[in-house]
Write a sequence for this structure.
């Protein structure tokens, strides 16, 4: 990728194809002190009020900068790297490759919590790790009731749901969700019935005196890739069939329709939803339903098999941050008479982690 000049025109060259950059595209990027506010980085002018037929009067290109004077008298000095970055049209997060893992994965991504942790280079590395593996565990996080709210809001903003700003995971009478019992929870994703589905779940262990109640994780990305390779028909129907997910309690009815495996606009993995107590497939033709049921059974087998699941015990002070669009989580059963098991949970969205990661990258010039 490079920038070239010819007469008073700017060209962008990429893999043999050369295209002119519209002068207006460059004009609306003028960045002098009178054009862009130094603190908010917001434009001080309204580009919709500019004349459309703006031309370039003068240009100069060095290794690092493109200097332009426009026909309306404005001039600017743009960083070549910034222009190239806009043409690659890829978010910094998309460059982070997902690492597939299965039950043999035993390097749990641990980071010790410290003072000023959220503004540290280590936090940047933890977030990169989160995007690579879909989870990260913070150790020695202060065991204070509700500290989770503080933690989540130090990365970005908490995503409130009908379970509240945060929720207490411990067994209680007449629960509105099986999470609030001591029963085993098979691998699932949370809130598949919500639009949009909360992106990231955070679980903070306050007390854990029981022998069971191990936390379990499965990489939905690894399983999806496996299904695509070995059972392409199943993969196809699960990526094409929109299923209704629902949650009903005394105060609310939540519903959404989405594929169990959702792909992005490039046909790549985007998100999995799996909660077989809450999903309702539409009334499709019998042969399609037959294929759908076999596909769901197979993916359930894979999600539940020992081959893909990791199990570990959260101890007080541990805080697990996991990608609810990629990973499935669950727990083994426990005996509530052995003692207390108390976790606090909440959700945040990708804009929080992305925003934090980009900020730390800029701060430490990484
Ligand atoms: Fe859950």
């Amino acid at each position: 990728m490079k920038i070239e000049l010819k007469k008073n025109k700017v060209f962008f060259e990429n893999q043999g194809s050369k295209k002119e950059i519209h002068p207006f595209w460059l004009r609306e990027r003028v960045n002098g002190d009178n054009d862009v506010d130094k603190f908010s980085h917001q434009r001080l002018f309204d580009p919709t009020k500019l004349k459309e037929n703006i031309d370039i009067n003068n240009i100069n290109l060095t290794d690092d900068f493109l200097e332009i004077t426009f026909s309306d008298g404005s001039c600017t000095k743009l960083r070549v790297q910034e222009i190239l970055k806009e043409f690659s049209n890829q978010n910094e997060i998309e460059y982070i490759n997902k690492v597939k893992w299965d039950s043999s994965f035993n390097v749990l991504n641990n980071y010790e919590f410290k003072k000023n942790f959220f503004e540290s280079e280590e936090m940047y590395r933890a977030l990169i790790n989160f995007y690579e593996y879909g989870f990260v565990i913070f150790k020695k996080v202060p065991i204070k009731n509700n500290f989770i709210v503080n933690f989540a809001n130090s990365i970005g903003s908490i995503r409130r749901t009908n379970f509240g700003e945060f929720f207490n995971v411990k067994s209680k009478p007449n629960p509105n969700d099986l999470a609030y019992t001591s029963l085993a929870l098979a691998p699932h994703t949370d809130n598949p019935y919500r639009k949009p589905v909360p992106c990231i779940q955070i679980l903070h262990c306050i007390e854990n005196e029981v022998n069971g109640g191990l936390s379990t994780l499965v990489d939905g990305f690894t399983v999806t890739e496996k299904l695509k390779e070995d059972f392409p028909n199943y993969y196809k129907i699960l990526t094409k069939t929109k299923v209704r997910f629902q949650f009903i309690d005394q105060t609310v009815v939540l519903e959404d329709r989405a594929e169990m495996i959702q792909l992005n606009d490039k046909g790549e993995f985007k998100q999995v939803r799996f909660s077989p107590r809450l999903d309702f497939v539409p009334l499709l033709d019998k042969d399609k339903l037959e294929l759908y049921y076999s596909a769901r059974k197979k993916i359930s087998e894979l999600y539940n098999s020992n081959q893909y699941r990791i199990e570990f015990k959260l101890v007080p002070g541990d805080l697990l941050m996991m990608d609810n669009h990629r990973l499935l989580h669950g727990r083994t059963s426990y005996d509530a008479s052995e003692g207390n098991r108390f976790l606090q949970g909440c959700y945040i969205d990708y804009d929080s982690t992305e925003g934090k990661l980009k900020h730390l990258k800029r701060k430490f010039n990484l």
Residues 179, 188, 190, 329 surround fe (ii) ion (CB under 6 Å).
